[in-house]
Write a structure and sequence with these properties.
This protein has helices at about 15-25, 35-40, 55-70, 95-120, 145-165, 190-200, 210-220; strands at about 5-10, 30-35, 45-50, 75-80, 125-130, 170-175, 230. It has about 240 residues and is α/β, with parallel strands linked by helices. GO terms for molecular function: oxidoreductase activity, acting on the CH-OH group of donors, NAD or NADP as acceptor.
């Protein structure tokens, strides 16, 4: 059996596409999200679906322990769970900032904390963190969201340097506009309408499968090769 892959936020969008892509390559999976039904509906072979809030580090560790017992050590962790709540800094509810920081940053760190020590001890392993182009440049109405994604870029590169001599790889994948339900979390109807107009202006956005293919490409490189960052977006996306 191939290496166990753990995917957070696996119930829809990019996470579900990642699950299908790695399953098609014969990997057993631990799929984590708040809702188990959509993950189970994927009907993927050798998959374990667990309801987990990524802000709960102990719950992540417990789920991983059960998967390791069944499938063996974690070969790859994909930190994909995230939320995008757009708004102006002077009017947005600060509770939305806290939610994004907890899920987008602490959730990633919790996942890393759950697997990194074992990967270092075994001198192998790959952690892929799904960030965003908003982790490389700023956008209107994105201040807090950009802050979380800039953090993902920084922590990924920082830890990559720390564990490079342990032969553990850390990869940042930074998609631009993708066809997912992520925008639906935003509460401002005006911002959502403007974002939709932007997507239409570009003539459409990339599908989650493109992001999954990028993750698979990075993972399938020899362990001695670390694809540090992949940035992908619709060709017509300018910023």
């Amino acid at each position: 059996m191939k290496q166990l892959i753990v995917i957070t936020g696996a119930s829809s969008g990019i996470g579900a596409a990642m699950a299908k892509a790695f399953s098609a390559k014969g990997h057993p999976l631990l799929l984590l999200a708040r809702r188990t039904e959509p993950m189970q509906a994927l009907e993927l072979e050798n998959s374990l679906c667990v309801s987990v809030d990524v802000t709960d580090g102990e719950a992540i560790k417990t789920a991983i322990a059960s998967a390791v017992e069944k499938f063996g050590p974690v070969g790859g962790l994909i930190n994909n769970a995230g939320v995008m709540l757009l708004g102006q800094a002077d009017t947005q509810d600060p509770a939305e900032w806290a939610q994004m920081l907890n899920i987008n940053v602490m959730g990633v760190l919790n996942g890393i904390h759950a697997v990194l020590a074992d990967m270092k001890a075994r001198k192998t392993g790959t952690i892929i963190n799904v960030s965003s182009i908003a982790g490389r440049k700023t956008f209107p109405n994105h201040a807090a969201y950009c802050a979380t994604k800039f953090a993902v870029h920084a922590l990924t590169e920082n830890i990559r340097e720390e564990v490079a001599m342990d032969d553990v790889r850390l990869v940042t994948i930074a998609p631009g506009a993708v066809e997912t339900a992520l925008l639906s979390h935003t509460t401002s109807e005006e911002i959502k309408a403007g974002y939709q107009e932007w997507k239409e202006f570009m003539g459409g956005v990339i599908e989650p499968t493109a992001v999954a293919d990028a993750a698979l490409f990075a993972f399938e490189q020899p362990q001695s090769v670390c694809v540090r960052e992949i940035v992908l977006a619709p060709t017509r996306q300018q910023p």
